[in-house]
Amino acid sequence: MTRERLYLFDTTLRDGQQTHGVDFRTADKQRLAAALDGLGIDYVEGGWPGANPTDSEFFAQAPALGHATLTAFGMTKRAGRSAENDDVLAAVTNAGTPAVCLVGKTHDFHVTTALGVSLEENLANIRESVAHLTALGREALFDAEHFFDGYKANPGYALQCLAAARDAGARWVVLCDTNGGTLPAEIGAITRAVIAAGIPGDRLGIHTHNDTENAVAGALAAVDAGARQVQGTLNGLGERCGNANLTSLIPTLLLKEPYASRFETGVTREGLGRLRAASRLLDEILNRVPNRHAPYVGASAFAHKAGLHASAILKDPTTYEHVAPEVVGNERIIPMSNQAGQSNLRRRLAEAGIAVEKGDPALARILEEVKAREEAGFAYDSARASFELLARATLGRLPRFFDVERYRVVIERRRNASGEMVTLSEAVVVVHVEGEKVMSVSDSLDPATHEDQGPVNALSAALTKDLGRYQAYLEDMRLVDFKVRIINSGTEAITRVLLDSEDGRGQRWSTVGVSANIVDASFQAVADAVLWKLIRDGAPKAGE
Amino acid sequence: MTRERLYLFDTTLRDGQQTHGVDFRTADKQRLAAALDGLGIDYVEGGWPGANPTDSEFFAQAPALGHATLTAFGMTKRAGRSAENDDVLAAVTNAGTPAVCLVGKTHDFHVTTALGVSLEENLANIRESVAHLTALGREALFDAEHFFDGYKANPGYALQCLAAARDAGARWVVLCDTNGGTLPAEIGAITRAVIAAGIPGDRLGIHTHNDTENAVAGALAAVDAGARQVQGTLNGLGERCGNANLTSLIPTLLLKEPYASRFETGVTREGLGRLRAASRLLDEILNRVPNRHAPYVGASAFAHKAGLHASAILKDPTTYEHVAPEVVGNERIIPMSNQAGQSNLRRRLAEAGIAVEKGDPALARILEEVKAREEAGFAYDSARASFELLARATLGRLPRFFDVERYRVVIERRRNASGEMVTLSEAVVVVHVEGEKVMSVSDSLDPATHEDQGPVNALSAALTKDLGRYQAYLEDMRLVDFKVRIINSGTEAITRVLLDSEDGRGQRWSTVGVSANIVDASFQAVADAVLWKLIRDGAPKAGE
To answer: Residue span of the signal peptide, if any (chains A, B) (predicted)?
Structure first.
């Protein structure tokens, strides 16, 4: 059976950019365009040339795309001038992209009130703008703004707008649910009516928003009805509640029925395997914490409960998983603290270079230790480096490099010589290395700004200031992230600190500390980070 | 036209609790149950009595609910014993709730492999367990685990399981898409088939998961097909990608067609107005950052772009909004137009006993100050007491009671006389009260257990140890909760501390502090808490 072609259109760089707090730089847009192209997206909408300096610069330095068609966005020409003489439209076409998408009105109320032009003038604007694009040899797309509300208010006029674009040669007419208020069943019914009225499904696109949490379902309903282009953004980025989430739509369309056998897309299996990485790239550019619970690509998307579920999963993953995590570049997480976890534990230890024989009773001891400490607040799923150290300690394979005798931190707030209130932290750490006692002191001031960075930085700086023969191993190590969580509340609060460290070789590792005292919890995590680095880099043990 | 009754079933406290990292305390569950009841939810599933200490304690101290039916969760009896003699089931029924929901298998493959019992034994387990509940006078619900996969594998057997529950007297049979893999169109088709096979729609519930980002749409598809109970959680909380999000479903079912005219629910318009607050309560309990982009209740859900959109919105909000934000307790955000903000601010200040004339230019200054400080990391929605203090300061109406000259905290970890490693914190605070300098020192040891409670407790104890004439106002005040969040990451981390305080009169108030130094951020929040208490209790100003 020949499969029908379904096209994917990404608007992360245009509609996604409209989001509050999102401000891509040109280099960000170039990296994202390359990642979208690497997935196999058919159209990458890069922005609105002329609307702002970043968008103009991006098109001026347009990346070379292998598969995707770079698309510029703009609006249909204004009334009272020709398409050739509209300077806003000229800025869009001058970007020189092979495809151009123009938004126009199809809701009679918006035409007469917001634009203040006659219904006939609006039809002419659509017709002449699209004809202008095709005359320039560009692939033309027409974005029908507020289409569903427009259709409900005046179906005849809304359809006339679409027909004007179609007849002028638009490759695609895109039905936009601009305010996100149309529910999937209605999107399906109206899409069917549009096709019945003579706009072919293979020239019809769908653009939904998530204001009722139905953007993905709305897009699927339009595909079910016959639309063959799906618009959306990575991670559902977009104003208000976001756009349709391509990160969810792509695996559904490729992996799940009735879509998988019916459609051919530009995204190959190989591209699909890069989906999680593309999702994380956007988070990294936006400096956002990745959503653990994101469908398909979230860290928890394939995390299973302990007990019955986990043991069933080990026997046959299809019992509790609707797709295989590796297909989208994700991984399965089976909690360690369960009976079925021993083989999983051995695999994890092997990955960390710790070989343990099958059936070694130490495996059960490690699982018990992990469980007991997780009940006390430790989080070893997040802190893999501390997990390795705990396993080594239980196995009697934890090398000793140094011993911490004591530490002290002083945090003081008072007036400085200029009479300003300032805060200063100072830490003293006393360690024993190779039988030598070493005392180190450090403050918390950033060397560049001279601003206080708090007690944890001071402690970390003091501990890593002089570790004798081990010092060389720590020169390229730095703290990159720090998360604090209060586990119980009130007077019995326990603090959990998760720390991410990085070194010059690009290694990144996470450690955890737990204490009623936030400074002590932080110190534990810092000490673990140092210890892990020494082991991983093969530092000689004390006495070696 | 008579409207049909549609029932809402919340499982935040049971299925939501299964989420990685979610660990409700009994008091949290009680607060959430009350909030759900206040919305008008019909069933509040509180947990699994006997499965863990928190759930057992919650049912032992069950809150009195006005509208909602408190429901206990459990599983159908095991094979080889009677329902009366199954101790797991007994723990569930002994909780004494008016309704009990039991999960059971309906997928033949799971019955024979996971349970290892015959298909007939499984039917008997369902039948006898449900009959046992009805014999005890309880309302019985049957959760059909993996129903959709089971129906696809063996429709006859899956339907037999439902019929067994129905015939044994189950008020509700709930179709569960346990692994979240069934798409809405298929959920709709299978639900219709179930009804056609003799399970009446008004005894049929739907329970979906968000693994394809279609949980909300799947629930709506089942309602379209005839199901009359919808299960979900606040904010879509749940394992993997979460459960169906009631925070999105409720407004859709109440406000949007075809549902609004067709159905009657337990949620009134008044309850709906508390939806945003209920959503935030859960975030607060979980110490999560509220999702700005959440449909209906997110801070950005009704945030409009500047320019054309915003001016159209001012003329007629229906042009760009599919529902009105205030209906769900949310508010519209229009950039560069704070007319709506000022009247809202005046109302808030009036609630705090701070009267400001309409049009007072101080209102604009307060909004600017709030905005600037929120950009720096403060969170005034959560810290109303600090917001009041900020407004008073801007208005020049902040009384001075005392001045903090300086403070110092020392945190030390070392061996004690018995050779054990111990941590100790000590704080010194120097304040001026009525021209007198007062120095106070306190350590961090819990008077009862002699355990270290960390630097924030030591600082708080020192500050409130001797405030001269104000001391009497502080005797009944205590710290009850403490939340820490790192706002930026890496070396430029800013720490936000939110503090909840309580007094003997049952007042509870929240304050905030922000600093690169976690101890300093905590001190700011403690100082604000003291200041608010003195103002609220009418302490005389300095010199009065």
So the answer is: none
